[in-house]
Write a structure and sequence with these properties.
- The strands form three sheets. The protein has a two-stranded antiparallel sheet.
- Strand 2 and strand 3 form a beta hairpin.
- The protein is globular and about 65 Å long.
- It has one domain.
- Helix 9 packs antiparallel against helix 10.
- It starts with a helix and ends with a helix.
- It is built from 20 helices and six strands.
- 64% of the residues lie in helices and 4% in strands.
- The protein is mainly α and 441 residues long.
Length: 441
Protein backbone atom coordinates (compact mmCIF):
# COMPACT_ATOMS: atom_id res chain seq x y z
CA UNK A 1 0.00 0.00 0.00
CA UNK A 2 2.83 2.41 0.89
CA UNK A 3 4.49 1.63 -2.45
CA UNK A 4 1.26 2.40 -4.33
CA UNK A 5 0.76 5.71 -2.51
CA UNK A 6 4.31 7.06 -2.68
CA UNK A 7 5.63 5.21 -5.78
CA UNK A 8 9.06 4.23 -4.47
CA UNK A 9 10.17 2.39 -7.62
CA UNK A 10 9.10 5.20 -9.91
CA UNK A 11 11.03 7.70 -7.78
CA UNK A 12 14.03 5.40 -7.33
CA UNK A 13 13.95 5.36 -3.55
CA UNK A 14 13.26 3.00 -0.65
CA UNK A 15 11.24 3.03 2.57
CA UNK A 16 14.38 3.20 4.72
CA UNK A 17 15.85 6.09 2.73
CA UNK A 18 12.63 8.08 3.06
CA UNK A 19 12.54 7.56 6.83
CA UNK A 20 16.15 8.73 7.20
CA UNK A 21 15.37 11.77 5.03
CA UNK A 22 12.35 12.62 7.19
CA UNK A 23 14.37 12.42 10.40
CA UNK A 24 17.06 14.61 8.83
CA UNK A 25 14.53 17.25 7.74
CA UNK A 26 12.90 17.31 11.17
CA UNK A 27 16.25 17.75 12.92
CA UNK A 28 17.02 20.72 10.67
CA UNK A 29 13.72 22.53 11.29
CA UNK A 30 12.80 21.44 14.83
CA UNK A 31 13.98 24.80 16.14
CA UNK A 32 10.60 26.22 15.08
CA UNK A 33 9.03 24.39 18.03
CA UNK A 34 11.03 26.61 20.38
CA UNK A 35 11.22 29.85 18.41
CA UNK A 36 7.62 30.18 17.20
CA UNK A 37 5.78 29.81 20.54
CA UNK A 38 8.31 32.11 22.20
CA UNK A 39 7.68 34.82 19.60
CA UNK A 40 3.87 34.62 19.44
CA UNK A 41 3.64 34.51 23.25
CA UNK A 42 4.67 38.20 23.23
CA UNK A 43 1.18 38.99 21.91
CA UNK A 44 -0.43 37.62 25.08
CA UNK A 45 -1.17 34.14 23.75
CA UNK A 46 -0.56 31.13 26.01
CA UNK A 47 2.92 29.69 25.37
CA UNK A 48 2.00 26.10 26.23
CA UNK A 49 -1.00 26.20 23.90
CA UNK A 50 1.20 27.73 21.20
CA UNK A 51 3.65 24.84 21.48
CA UNK A 52 0.83 22.37 20.86
CA UNK A 53 -0.52 24.51 18.02
CA UNK A 54 2.92 24.76 16.37
CA UNK A 55 3.38 21.00 16.34
CA UNK A 56 -0.16 20.36 15.07
CA UNK A 57 -0.02 23.01 12.34
CA UNK A 58 3.38 21.81 11.14
CA UNK A 59 2.16 18.21 11.03
CA UNK A 60 -1.05 19.09 9.19
CA UNK A 61 0.69 21.32 6.64
CA UNK A 62 3.40 18.76 5.97
CA UNK A 63 0.88 15.95 5.54
CA UNK A 64 -1.14 18.06 3.10
CA UNK A 65 1.99 18.66 1.03
CA UNK A 66 2.94 14.98 1.21
CA UNK A 67 -0.36 13.67 -0.12
CA UNK A 68 -1.17 16.49 -2.56
CA UNK A 69 2.25 16.53 -4.23
CA UNK A 70 4.22 13.42 -3.17
CA UNK A 71 7.23 15.74 -2.78
CA UNK A 72 9.54 15.60 0.28
CA UNK A 73 8.50 19.10 1.37
CA UNK A 74 7.93 20.09 5.01
CA UNK A 75 5.71 23.00 6.10
CA UNK A 76 5.60 24.97 9.35
CA UNK A 77 4.81 28.49 10.59
CA UNK A 78 7.02 30.82 8.58
CA UNK A 79 9.87 32.81 10.05
CA UNK A 80 9.34 36.46 9.18
CA UNK A 81 5.61 35.92 8.94
CA UNK A 82 5.47 35.16 12.67
CA UNK A 83 7.61 38.25 13.35
CA UNK A 84 5.23 40.38 11.29
CA UNK A 85 2.25 38.85 13.14
CA UNK A 86 3.78 39.63 16.53
CA UNK A 87 5.66 42.90 16.13
CA UNK A 88 4.02 44.39 13.06
CA UNK A 89 0.35 43.60 13.62
CA UNK A 90 -0.28 42.89 17.31
CA UNK A 91 2.36 45.02 19.03
CA UNK A 92 3.07 47.62 16.36
CA UNK A 93 -0.57 48.33 15.44
CA UNK A 94 -2.17 47.36 18.78
CA UNK A 95 -4.41 44.79 17.11
CA UNK A 96 -5.67 41.97 19.37
CA UNK A 97 -4.19 38.61 18.47
CA UNK A 98 -7.70 37.30 17.82
CA UNK A 99 -8.13 39.95 15.12
CA UNK A 100 -4.71 39.15 13.70
CA UNK A 101 -5.71 35.48 13.45
CA UNK A 102 -8.81 36.60 11.57
CA UNK A 103 -6.63 38.33 8.99
CA UNK A 104 -4.41 35.25 8.72
CA UNK A 105 -7.47 33.06 8.14
CA UNK A 106 -8.82 35.21 5.32
CA UNK A 107 -5.33 35.48 3.85
CA UNK A 108 -5.27 31.68 3.70
CA UNK A 109 -8.69 31.57 2.05
CA UNK A 110 -7.62 34.21 -0.48
CA UNK A 111 -4.43 32.23 -1.11
CA UNK A 112 -6.52 29.10 -1.78
CA UNK A 113 -8.64 31.00 -4.32
CA UNK A 114 -5.58 32.42 -6.05
CA UNK A 115 -3.93 28.97 -6.15
CA UNK A 116 -6.99 27.36 -7.71
CA UNK A 117 -7.65 30.18 -10.19
CA UNK A 118 -4.11 30.72 -11.41
CA UNK A 119 -4.15 34.44 -10.52
CA UNK A 120 -1.03 33.85 -8.42
CA UNK A 121 1.08 33.98 -11.61
CA UNK A 122 -0.20 37.53 -12.24
CA UNK A 123 0.92 38.61 -8.76
CA UNK A 124 4.33 36.99 -9.17
CA UNK A 125 4.82 38.74 -12.51
CA UNK A 126 3.70 42.10 -11.08
CA UNK A 127 6.51 42.31 -8.52
CA UNK A 128 9.99 42.93 -10.03
CA UNK A 129 12.83 40.67 -9.00
CA UNK A 130 14.66 43.48 -7.19
CA UNK A 131 11.73 44.01 -4.83
CA UNK A 132 11.37 40.27 -4.19
CA UNK A 133 15.05 40.16 -3.24
CA UNK A 134 14.71 43.29 -1.11
CA UNK A 135 11.69 41.91 0.73
CA UNK A 136 13.49 38.65 1.52
CA UNK A 137 16.63 40.45 2.71
CA UNK A 138 14.63 43.00 4.71
CA UNK A 139 12.73 40.27 6.52
CA UNK A 140 16.08 38.59 7.22
CA UNK A 141 17.44 41.78 8.80
CA UNK A 142 14.18 42.17 10.74
CA UNK A 143 14.39 38.63 12.14
CA UNK A 144 18.07 39.05 13.02
CA UNK A 145 17.32 42.32 14.85
CA UNK A 146 14.62 40.56 16.89
CA UNK A 147 17.11 37.81 17.71
CA UNK A 148 19.70 40.34 18.91
CA UNK A 149 17.03 42.05 21.02
CA UNK A 150 15.81 38.80 22.56
CA UNK A 151 19.37 37.91 23.48
CA UNK A 152 20.04 41.30 25.08
CA UNK A 153 22.93 41.93 22.69
CA UNK A 154 21.12 44.98 21.27
CA UNK A 155 19.11 47.20 23.62
CA UNK A 156 17.21 50.47 23.27
CA UNK A 157 18.89 53.84 23.90
CA UNK A 158 17.16 57.23 24.35
CA UNK A 159 19.66 59.09 22.15
CA UNK A 160 20.99 56.59 19.60
CA UNK A 161 17.78 54.47 19.43
CA UNK A 162 19.72 51.21 19.87
CA UNK A 163 23.09 50.30 21.35
CA UNK A 164 25.15 47.33 22.51
CA UNK A 165 23.81 45.69 25.65
CA UNK A 166 25.89 44.12 28.43
CA UNK A 167 27.41 40.99 26.93
CA UNK A 168 28.57 39.67 30.31
CA UNK A 169 27.93 40.15 34.01
CA UNK A 170 31.39 41.26 35.03
CA UNK A 171 33.53 38.17 34.64
CA UNK A 172 30.46 35.94 34.63
CA UNK A 173 28.44 34.99 31.52
CA UNK A 174 24.88 36.23 31.03
CA UNK A 175 22.11 35.65 28.48
CA UNK A 176 23.92 37.64 25.79
CA UNK A 177 27.07 35.59 26.33
CA UNK A 178 25.13 32.36 25.93
CA UNK A 179 23.43 33.65 22.78
CA UNK A 180 26.79 34.46 21.20
CA UNK A 181 28.03 31.00 22.19
CA UNK A 182 24.99 29.42 20.54
CA UNK A 183 25.50 31.49 17.40
CA UNK A 184 29.12 30.35 17.09
CA UNK A 185 28.14 26.71 17.64
CA UNK A 186 25.36 26.89 15.03
CA UNK A 187 27.57 28.54 12.39
CA UNK A 188 30.45 26.10 12.93
CA UNK A 189 28.11 23.12 12.67
CA UNK A 190 26.51 24.53 9.51
CA UNK A 191 29.94 25.03 7.96
CA UNK A 192 30.65 21.39 8.73
CA UNK A 193 27.22 20.51 7.23
CA UNK A 194 25.97 18.85 10.41
CA UNK A 195 22.18 18.23 10.20
CA UNK A 196 20.16 20.06 12.84
CA UNK A 197 22.84 22.68 13.58
CA UNK A 198 20.34 25.19 15.00
CA UNK A 199 18.66 22.52 17.14
CA UNK A 200 22.00 21.37 18.56
CA UNK A 201 22.94 24.98 19.38
CA UNK A 202 19.57 25.56 21.11
CA UNK A 203 19.90 22.44 23.24
CA UNK A 204 23.53 23.22 24.13
CA UNK A 205 22.76 26.76 25.29
CA UNK A 206 19.73 25.49 27.23
CA UNK A 207 21.90 22.96 29.04
CA UNK A 208 24.65 25.48 29.83
CA UNK A 209 22.00 27.96 30.97
CA UNK A 210 21.11 25.64 33.86
CA UNK A 211 24.42 26.69 35.48
CA UNK A 212 24.45 30.41 34.60
CA UNK A 213 22.90 32.67 37.29
CA UNK A 214 20.12 35.12 36.44
CA UNK A 215 17.72 37.35 38.39
CA UNK A 216 15.17 34.57 38.79
CA UNK A 217 17.65 31.77 39.51
CA UNK A 218 19.36 30.54 36.36
CA UNK A 219 19.04 31.49 32.68
CA UNK A 220 17.33 28.15 32.02
CA UNK A 221 14.50 27.28 34.37
CA UNK A 222 14.09 23.89 36.02
CA UNK A 223 11.71 21.51 34.18
CA UNK A 224 8.79 19.82 35.91
CA UNK A 225 9.77 16.60 34.20
CA UNK A 226 10.95 15.19 30.89
CA UNK A 227 7.82 13.58 29.48
CA UNK A 228 4.25 14.76 29.97
CA UNK A 229 0.87 15.09 28.32
CA UNK A 230 0.58 17.76 25.61
CA UNK A 231 -0.51 21.20 26.76
CA UNK A 232 -4.13 22.06 26.06
CA UNK A 233 -4.67 24.06 22.88
CA UNK A 234 -7.93 25.46 24.28
CA UNK A 235 -6.61 29.01 25.05
CA UNK A 236 -6.00 29.64 21.32
CA UNK A 237 -8.21 27.05 19.61
CA UNK A 238 -10.74 28.77 17.30
CA UNK A 239 -10.17 32.07 19.14
CA UNK A 240 -10.45 33.87 15.81
CA UNK A 241 -12.17 37.20 15.28
CA UNK A 242 -13.57 36.24 11.88
CA UNK A 243 -15.10 39.65 11.12
CA UNK A 244 -12.17 41.84 12.23
CA UNK A 245 -10.81 42.39 8.68
CA UNK A 246 -14.27 43.48 7.48
CA UNK A 247 -15.01 45.72 10.45
CA UNK A 248 -11.60 47.38 10.12
CA UNK A 249 -11.07 47.14 6.36
CA UNK A 250 -9.38 50.57 6.14
CA UNK A 251 -6.36 49.26 8.07
CA UNK A 252 -6.72 45.52 7.47
CA UNK A 253 -6.39 45.49 3.67
CA UNK A 254 -2.75 46.53 3.71
CA UNK A 255 -1.93 43.84 6.29
CA UNK A 256 -3.73 41.13 4.30
CA UNK A 257 -1.94 42.17 1.09
CA UNK A 258 1.41 42.06 2.91
CA UNK A 259 0.69 38.64 4.41
CA UNK A 260 -0.37 37.35 1.01
CA UNK A 261 2.69 38.74 -0.80
CA UNK A 262 5.21 37.52 1.75
CA UNK A 263 3.63 34.07 2.05
CA UNK A 264 3.34 33.68 -1.73
CA UNK A 265 6.91 34.79 -2.49
CA UNK A 266 8.33 32.82 0.43
CA UNK A 267 6.49 29.64 -0.59
CA UNK A 268 7.24 29.86 -4.30
CA UNK A 269 10.88 30.78 -3.75
CA UNK A 270 11.41 27.94 -1.31
CA UNK A 271 9.52 25.37 -3.39
CA UNK A 272 11.41 26.20 -6.58
CA UNK A 273 14.80 26.29 -4.84
CA UNK A 274 14.26 23.00 -3.00
CA UNK A 275 12.71 21.10 -5.90
CA UNK A 276 15.39 22.25 -8.36
CA UNK A 277 17.99 20.92 -5.95
CA UNK A 278 16.19 17.58 -5.97
CA UNK A 279 15.68 17.71 -9.77
CA UNK A 280 11.89 17.57 -9.52
CA UNK A 281 11.46 20.33 -12.12
CA UNK A 282 10.91 19.65 -15.83
CA UNK A 283 13.24 20.56 -18.71
CA UNK A 284 11.91 24.16 -18.68
CA UNK A 285 12.61 24.58 -14.97
CA UNK A 286 8.92 24.44 -14.01
CA UNK A 287 7.56 22.45 -11.08
CA UNK A 288 4.78 20.10 -12.34
CA UNK A 289 2.77 20.12 -9.10
CA UNK A 290 3.39 23.72 -8.04
CA UNK A 291 -0.35 24.48 -7.83
CA UNK A 292 -0.90 21.55 -5.45
CA UNK A 293 2.07 22.60 -3.33
CA UNK A 294 0.76 26.16 -3.02
CA UNK A 295 -2.72 24.82 -2.28
CA UNK A 296 -1.29 22.80 0.62
CA UNK A 297 0.45 25.94 1.89
CA UNK A 298 -2.72 28.03 1.60
CA UNK A 299 -4.97 25.44 3.24
CA UNK A 300 -2.47 24.97 6.09
CA UNK A 301 -2.44 28.74 6.66
CA UNK A 302 -6.25 28.86 6.98
CA UNK A 303 -6.34 25.80 9.25
CA UNK A 304 -3.38 27.14 11.23
CA UNK A 305 -5.25 30.37 12.02
CA UNK A 306 -8.06 28.29 13.54
CA UNK A 307 -5.50 26.51 15.71
CA UNK A 308 -3.81 29.76 16.77
CA UNK A 309 -0.86 30.17 14.40
CA UNK A 310 0.54 32.78 12.03
CA UNK A 311 0.85 31.80 8.31
CA UNK A 312 2.41 28.49 7.27
CA UNK A 313 4.99 28.13 4.52
CA UNK A 314 7.35 25.61 2.93
CA UNK A 315 10.72 25.28 4.69
CA UNK A 316 14.06 25.55 2.96
CA UNK A 317 15.33 22.96 5.47
CA UNK A 318 13.49 20.40 3.33
CA UNK A 319 16.63 20.48 1.19
CA UNK A 320 18.52 18.61 3.94
CA UNK A 321 16.10 15.70 3.61
CA UNK A 322 16.45 15.72 -0.17
CA UNK A 323 20.22 15.60 0.23
CA UNK A 324 19.71 12.58 2.49
CA UNK A 325 17.83 10.81 -0.30
CA UNK A 326 14.22 11.91 0.20
CA UNK A 327 12.18 11.67 -3.02
CA UNK A 328 8.55 11.20 -1.98
CA UNK A 329 5.87 12.39 0.40
CA UNK A 330 6.78 9.67 2.90
CA UNK A 331 9.62 11.97 3.99
CA UNK A 332 6.95 14.49 4.98
CA UNK A 333 4.88 11.86 6.78
CA UNK A 334 7.92 11.05 8.96
CA UNK A 335 8.45 14.77 9.66
CA UNK A 336 4.79 15.14 10.66
CA UNK A 337 5.02 12.12 12.99
CA UNK A 338 8.10 13.64 14.67
CA UNK A 339 6.27 16.93 15.24
CA UNK A 340 3.39 15.09 16.90
CA UNK A 341 5.78 13.02 19.02
CA UNK A 342 7.43 16.15 20.45
CA UNK A 343 4.13 17.15 22.05
CA UNK A 344 4.92 14.69 24.82
CA UNK A 345 8.21 16.47 25.62
CA UNK A 346 6.60 19.84 26.36
CA UNK A 347 8.15 20.14 29.89
CA UNK A 348 11.61 20.29 28.32
CA UNK A 349 10.67 22.53 25.41
CA UNK A 350 8.97 25.13 27.61
CA UNK A 351 12.08 25.83 29.73
CA UNK A 352 14.20 26.77 26.70
CA UNK A 353 15.22 30.43 27.25
CA UNK A 354 15.29 33.30 24.75
CA UNK A 355 19.09 33.18 24.84
CA UNK A 356 18.91 29.71 23.26
CA UNK A 357 16.41 30.55 20.51
CA UNK A 358 17.98 33.92 19.60
CA UNK A 359 20.89 32.34 17.63
CA UNK A 360 18.39 30.50 15.42
CA UNK A 361 16.65 33.80 14.63
CA UNK A 362 19.93 35.55 13.86
CA UNK A 363 21.18 32.70 11.69
CA UNK A 364 17.93 32.50 9.69
CA UNK A 365 18.18 36.25 9.15
CA UNK A 366 21.76 35.97 7.93
CA UNK A 367 20.87 33.23 5.45
CA UNK A 368 17.99 35.31 4.05
CA UNK A 369 20.45 38.06 3.09
CA UNK A 370 22.16 35.84 0.52
CA UNK A 371 19.74 36.92 -2.20
CA UNK A 372 21.27 40.41 -2.30
CA UNK A 373 24.06 39.08 -4.51
CA UNK A 374 21.48 38.56 -7.27
CA UNK A 375 20.67 42.27 -7.56
CA UNK A 376 21.75 44.06 -10.73
CA UNK A 377 24.22 46.44 -9.09
CA UNK A 378 25.03 48.06 -12.44
CA UNK A 379 21.43 49.32 -12.77
CA UNK A 380 20.90 51.71 -9.84
CA UNK A 381 17.27 52.36 -10.78
CA UNK A 382 16.67 48.63 -10.40
CA UNK A 383 18.87 47.83 -7.38
CA UNK A 384 18.11 50.93 -5.27
CA UNK A 385 14.45 50.00 -4.55
CA UNK A 386 15.56 46.52 -3.47
CA UNK A 387 18.20 47.88 -1.11
CA UNK A 388 15.85 50.54 0.27
CA UNK A 389 13.18 47.92 0.91
CA UNK A 390 15.72 45.73 2.72
CA UNK A 391 16.81 48.69 4.88
CA UNK A 392 13.36 50.15 5.57
CA UNK A 393 11.78 46.92 6.88
CA UNK A 394 14.02 46.70 9.98
CA UNK A 395 14.42 50.49 10.36
CA UNK A 396 10.63 51.02 10.33
CA UNK A 397 10.27 47.83 12.39
CA UNK A 398 7.46 46.98 9.98
CA UNK A 399 7.42 44.53 7.08
CA UNK A 400 4.23 46.09 5.71
CA UNK A 401 5.56 49.67 5.66
CA UNK A 402 8.91 48.54 4.25
CA UNK A 403 7.24 46.71 1.35
CA UNK A 404 4.86 49.62 0.68
CA UNK A 405 7.67 52.20 0.59
CA UNK A 406 9.74 49.90 -1.62
CA UNK A 407 6.90 49.59 -4.15
CA UNK A 408 6.34 53.35 -4.20
CA UNK A 409 10.09 54.02 -4.62
CA UNK A 410 10.36 51.55 -7.50
CA UNK A 411 7.48 53.16 -9.40
CA UNK A 412 8.83 56.68 -8.83
CA UNK A 413 12.35 55.76 -9.95
CA UNK A 414 11.18 53.93 -13.05
CA UNK A 415 8.90 56.80 -14.02
CA UNK A 416 11.57 59.48 -13.42
CA UNK A 417 14.23 57.52 -15.36
CA UNK A 418 11.99 57.05 -18.40
CA UNK A 419 11.38 53.33 -17.80
CA UNK A 420 7.70 53.51 -16.99
CA UNK A 421 7.09 50.48 -19.23
CA UNK A 422 8.77 48.28 -16.58
CA UNK A 423 5.99 48.99 -14.06
CA UNK A 424 3.31 46.31 -14.05
CA UNK A 425 -0.19 47.77 -13.83
CA UNK A 426 -0.95 45.80 -10.66
CA UNK A 427 2.19 47.08 -8.93
CA UNK A 428 1.35 50.64 -10.02
CA UNK A 429 -2.18 50.34 -8.64
CA UNK A 430 -0.93 48.97 -5.31
CA UNK A 431 1.68 51.73 -5.04
CA UNK A 432 -1.02 54.40 -5.51
CA UNK A 433 -3.15 52.73 -2.81
CA UNK A 434 -0.13 52.52 -0.49
CA UNK A 435 0.59 56.23 -1.07
CA UNK A 436 -3.03 57.15 -0.30
CA UNK A 437 -2.88 55.02 2.84
CA UNK A 438 0.21 56.91 4.06
CA UNK A 439 -1.34 60.26 3.17
CA UNK A 440 -4.54 59.78 5.15
CA UNK A 441 -3.12 57.87 8.14
Amino acid sequence: MVERVFKFRENQTTFRREVVAGLTTFAAMAYILMVHPDMLAKTGMDRGALLTATALVSAIGTLLAAFLTNYPIALAPGMGLNAFFTFGICIGMNIPWQGALGMVFWTGILFVILSLSGVRSLIVEAIPECLKIGIQAGIGLFIALIGFQNAGIVVDHPETLITLGPISDGWLPNSATLALLGLVIAVVLMVKQVPGASLIAILTVTLVGLFVPAESGTVTGRPDGIVGLPHSIAPVFFEVDWLYPFKNWHSAWMIVVTLLFVDLFDSMGTLIAVTRRGKFTDEKGNLPKLSNALLADAAATAVGACLGSSPVTAYIESATGIEAGGRTGLTGVVVAFCFLLTLFFAPILLIIPAAATAPALILVGVLMLSGLRSLDWDDLADSAPGILTAMLIPLCFSIANGIALGCITYCLLMTASGQKHRIHWLLGTLSVLFAIKFAIS
